[in-house]
Fold this sequence. Notes:
This protein is α+β, with helices and mostly antiparallel strands. It has one domain. It has helices spanning about 10-15, 100-110, 125, 170-175, 190-200, and strands at about 30-45, 50-60, 80-85, 130-140, 145-155. A hairpin with a 5-residue loop joins strand 1 (about 30-45) and strand 2. Residues about 160-180 and about 195-205 have low confidence and may be disordered.
Amino acid sequence: MSRSYSVPSQEEIEENSGGDRVALPGNEQYLAEVVELEDITKPNFDGKMQDYLKCKWNITSFRDGSDLEDLDQTLVPDGRWIWRDIDFARVGFMRDGTPSLARQFFLSAIGQSDMTAKIEDISNDDIMGKQMVLTLVVYNKQKDGKQANRVSAISPVRAPRRGGATVDAASSEALATQPANTTATELPPEMAAAVADLTADLGGTEENGS
């Protein structure tokens, strides 16, 4: 069977690239819907080919439902796209006990706030269209130094992002004590390289899109 290819128009590339759009505030939580999933294979940090699940979300509002605003406090009425490669081979915990991003992703997809829980046989169909809470940081892009966003944590849709009576995820409790991040967070060199690779994969786009 022959392989088919698609080539986007210049207008589509510019629309999806983020262009000169201002980043969203960091150390903040956002409601986002999974709008696209793609199985990809690319080199990992060690240069070995590895399978990932590339997820594209559409960020629609702050976690409490308030209107989306960028760092310049300009309304973002059409939402904002953001991508992240999910390493589904790493579904355990960090040395400090923090659940891996993949574990956060899959458990949040089914609304499970207990990050120690077990799930089986979750498919892309189970994840598509689901809402999640994304925590973003701000970083400076290597290519041009402009500020952009990166997904740093994922949690299920449960409680208000700040000041709520109950917050299910430990990461959300910690976040509530932190001020909004309006300056760039330095990424480790290997992570910055991975972001650059993602930029190339998306035809010149960064993790934050339209």
